[in-house]
């Protein structure tokens, strides 16, 4: 007996198919997201309205995680104390950084919710290309003209080509909705975890905010960050203010960085493909070896989460991830380097504070987890230290201004192999003052 997916002269019955998916145990949230996406396409919304990742959904998912842990209101004393810390941090950085400080915002202290509201659009724009790449890969599998849909979906083996194509179109749209909902859930949860841990608006070390947003600190998270360190609160606030102010200056004066990082994620997303034959072969081998048991859904989920069916990356994807990891490491390395230059001899607890920062980044930091889950990318602590050393050597060779001018364009940023010989790299990207020898 058929499932009744093709009534009305062979047109797909979306609600009947969703009901069947629900009976199969598909998450109700994913089903609702898929239905919403499908209906938006049917209603003729523009491409910009059909984003797979909805900002409103991200905000709601993240807000639940923030609310579960608690979000304290910001008081006048918070504003006054952190404003003073940021003013001092910027005064110190003025002696080291080429980039000028932004105008101090009227609200130096933010709540977790403030950061969420200001950053959520940036997150959506950053990760949307990845969702599109995954959704397109799934859609291509379904839409492949050589692929016949299983009888379980069609209800009968005797279906016309037109009915097959109609069902393929609907399944493709459903899967796009599923993918958008699944990634939005994962991303929203990651943003919520970040909101509960970051100490400043730019603490994630990725340009997500408007370039004129300035520096902001989150007092509740700063207090939790300082617990158990045995270091006075004033030094902790100054240290975290230095990190926040340095990052804000870099992002405000390197506006190309945001699109560059997004383009790398887009390049990775475009390379995503699903090799059905390869996945089928891996599944058969895993079942034969006992690695997965088709009668045990938990075992199947574990196998998926362990990357059993992870497709091979293309050379273009590998290059995109290498550049992304290097860029993120260079941002963190630059921040560590410049604040060390101005604070190492001024703050008695500086070495302990910077080591605590590095340790936190290396051990299950929410930002690391988020990128590992979405892109399979982990920026190693060693790479960040190498990046910090790189900036120190650039300063020795070119001075502080020459170091910061490397942020004028991606062409002036090194790849991993360039870190071993900084002088050779700088020579390769520097135009000689005297060009007569080239004529």
Explain the overall architecture.
Pfam families: Zincin_2. This is Zinicin-like metallopeptidase. The chain has 439 residues and is an all-alpha fold. The chain has one domain. The protein has 18 helices and no strands. It has helices spanning 7-10, 14-23, 28-42, 55-69, 76-93, 112-143, 151-154, 161-195, 219-226, 233-253, 256-270, 276-289, 297-305, 315-343, 350-362, 366-375, 381-405, 422-429. It starts with 6 loop residues before the first helix and ends in a 10-residue tail after the last helix. The model is unreliable at 1-12 (pLDDT under 50).
What topology does this entry show?
Elements: H1 7-10, H2 14-23, H3 28-42, H4 55-69, H5 76-93, H6 112-143, H7 151-154, H8 161-195, H9 219-226, H10 233-253, H11 256-270, H12 276-289, H13 297-305, H14 315-343, H15 350-362, H16 366-375, H17 381-405, H18 422-429
Helix pairs in contact: 3-8, 4-6, 4-8, 5-10, 6-8, 6-11, 8-16, 10-14, 11-14, 14-17
In short:
Helices cover 65% and strands 0% of the residues.
Which characteristics define this entry?
Zinicin_2_N, Zinicin_2, disordered N terminus, Zinicin-like metallopeptidase, 439 residues
Q: How much helical structure, as a percent, in the residues?
A: 55-70%
What class would the helix/strand composition place it in?
mainly alpha
Mean pLDDT: 82
The residue ranges in which pLDDT falls below 50 over 5 or more consecutive positions are: 1-12
Radius of gyration: 25 Å
Protein name: Zinicin-like metallopeptidase
Pfam families: Zincin_2
InterPro entries: Zinicin_2 (IPR018766), Zinicin_2_N (IPR042271)
